[in-house]
Design goal:
Order of helices and strands: HHEEHHHEEEHEEHHHHHHHHH
Strand order of the largest sheet: 5-4-3-6-7
Oligomer: single chain
Strand content: 5-15%
Number of helices: 15
Structural class: alpha/beta
Shape: elongated
Radius of gyration: 33 Å
């Protein structure tokens, strides 16, 4: 808006008051837009992991962390905890005898060599690494002369021995385990194998092992995807990753027993359509209300851990926040009540209690509406008017009440989406350690391995053995029950 001098203002007021009023309206609109922008920026600066979807790693130093209510239990092992004490193995690899040199009564020297039948008074064991774990085996092809004609026939190597010097499947499996599960970068994995195993492995060898194993796992990944699409309750989430210096997205679909990771350039429906699990989902889909998830499935469940953080933000930001504190306490009370009823062996919540909870929920949202009424569009305004974050939260809690309170009616539905968030967490660790995937093929191979190993771990299976069998072309198939 051009500068308006006092003389020009007086002239407009005298000769063209309508134009002056139009300038006044334009100024008010600008002030409103700037105020909304300042409010949004202030909320963005004030947001932490306690009050938003941001991860704790993004919090500035000194930010208070999420505080869980005290459990009332003392630190350390709890009563009834079974413990994990190591037990003696029946057949040790080596036995070292410690014989007394003289008699404990008279001091007479005792024989240095053990006699037959000497009893063992006590056993102890030490678990230790060998100086070098690598073992070099040299297969040789022999020539054998025929006793009849004297012709010398040369033997043949097995098909898996394709090079003069190569690494065995167990050694490569250890490398893949360190890369895909323990998230050690390629160079450090190669260095660790050289120091610990005594066999320096090139980074290219590790990359080829990862790619070869990922190709073998393709059919199993497809079966895991089919089982997830048919799961009665399915968790979904996404997080940003870097691929060759560009921003991509890693999408997870999971249950307590199965995990599928997929990487894509986009975050929304183009990615979920390409990955292909959510378009076939037949059960309830648990998510954090990201718009791309709503077209999938006929039943949804929203992450109430996100709602608790947003309600905490309302408490810290707004003066009229009694309703937010009430909703927050009510959600936690519902969760605790259900946990108590499940522990008592009850199959479902009682109808009077359910109706009481729903009545309180509606009353609290009505109080929120009174404190933060909806923003009405101005005459002639196009589109939906911009609303404060608090108002948007109220609208979501009401519009999607069935998804917010799904855990109240169906006890298979969890209170939050922590399952998917746990399955994504270690991918963020990989990004913090390694920084980026150098190629799209490397990112896709990592995701396939990660989803497979996560599934195996959920079943309590041995990962190194499974990786070894995968590199031998025979990957074990875990149970696909969800």
């Amino acid at each position: 808006m051009p500068t308006l001098t006092r003389a020009a203002f007086d002239e407009l007021r005298r000769t063209d008051p309508d134009r002056l009023f139009g300038l006044f309206e334009q100024l008010l609109a600008q002030v409103e837009q700037l105020g909304a922008r300042v409010e949004a920026l202030a909320a963005q600066l004030a947001a932490t992991s306690r009050t938003s979807h941001r991860p704790p790693s993004s919090d500035p130093p000194g930010t208070p962390k999420r505080v869980r209510p005290p459990s009332g239990r003392r630190p350390g092992g709890q009563p009834g905890h079974p413990g994990h004490t190591r037990h003696l193995v029946a057949t040790p690899d080596q036995v070292v005898a410690h014989r007394p040199a003289q008699c404990g009564r008279c001091g007479q020297p005792l024989a240095a060599e053990p006699a037959a039948g000497e009893p063992t008074a006590e056993r102890r064991q030490v678990i230790e690494l060998r100086p070098r774990l690598a073992e070099v085996t040299e297969p040789r092809v022999l020539q054998v002369a025929c006793p009849s004609c004297g012709h010398r026939t040369t033997g043949a190597f097995p098909t898996e021995l394709a090079a003069p010097v190569q690494y065995g499947p167990r050694l490569k499996a250890l490398g893949v385990y360190l890369l895909a599960y323990q998230l050690v970068p390629h160079e450090r994995t190669a260095e660790l194998l050289g120091e610990l195993v005594g066999a320096p492995v090139a980074v290219g060898t590790l990359q080829r092992a990862v790619q070869a194993g990922a190709a073998t796992l393709a059919p199993i990944e497809a079966q895991i995807a089919d089982a997830l699409a048919a799961a009665p309750v399915l968790h979904a989430d996404e997080t940003g990753v870097s691929v060759n210096g560009q921003s991509w997205w890693l999408h997870v679909a999971s249950t307590a027993r199965l995990t599928h990771d997929g990487v894509h350039r986009q975050r929304g429906q183009a990615a979920t359509q390409a990955i292909g699990i959510l378009p076939r989902a037949s059960g309830r889909l648990i998510h954090d209300h990201w718009a791309a998830y709503w077209p999938y499935s006929t039943a949804h469940g929203l992450c109430n851990a996100h709602h608790l953080r947003e309600l905490t933000a309302v408490e810290e930001r707004d003066a009229d926040h009694a309703w937010a504190s009430g909703v927050k306490a009510l959600l936690v009370t519902m969760k605790e009540h259900i946990a108590a009823r499940q522990a008592a062996g009850e199959p479902a919540i009682r109808d009077p209690v359910r109706q009481h909870f729903r009545h309180l929920y509606a009353a609290l949202l009505a109080a929120g509406d009174a404190a933060h009424p909806p923003v009405r569009p101005k005459p002639g305004q196009r589109g939906r008017p911009r609303q404060p974050q608090t108002r948007n939260l109220l609208d979501r809690l009401r519009t999607h009440q069935a998804a917010v309170l799904a855990f109240l009616d169906d006890w298979r539905v969890p209170f939050d989406n922590n399952q998917a968030e746990r399955d994504l967490r270690m991918v963020k660790v990989q990004q913090q350690v390694s920084g980026t995937f150098r190629t799209e093929a490397g990112a896709a191979a990592f995701c396939r391995w990660r989803g497979y190993l996560s599934t195996l771990r959920k079943h309590g299976l041995d990962l190194l053995s499974a990786i070894t069998r995968t590199l031998q072309g025979q990957p074990p198939l875990p149970s696909l029950a969800t």
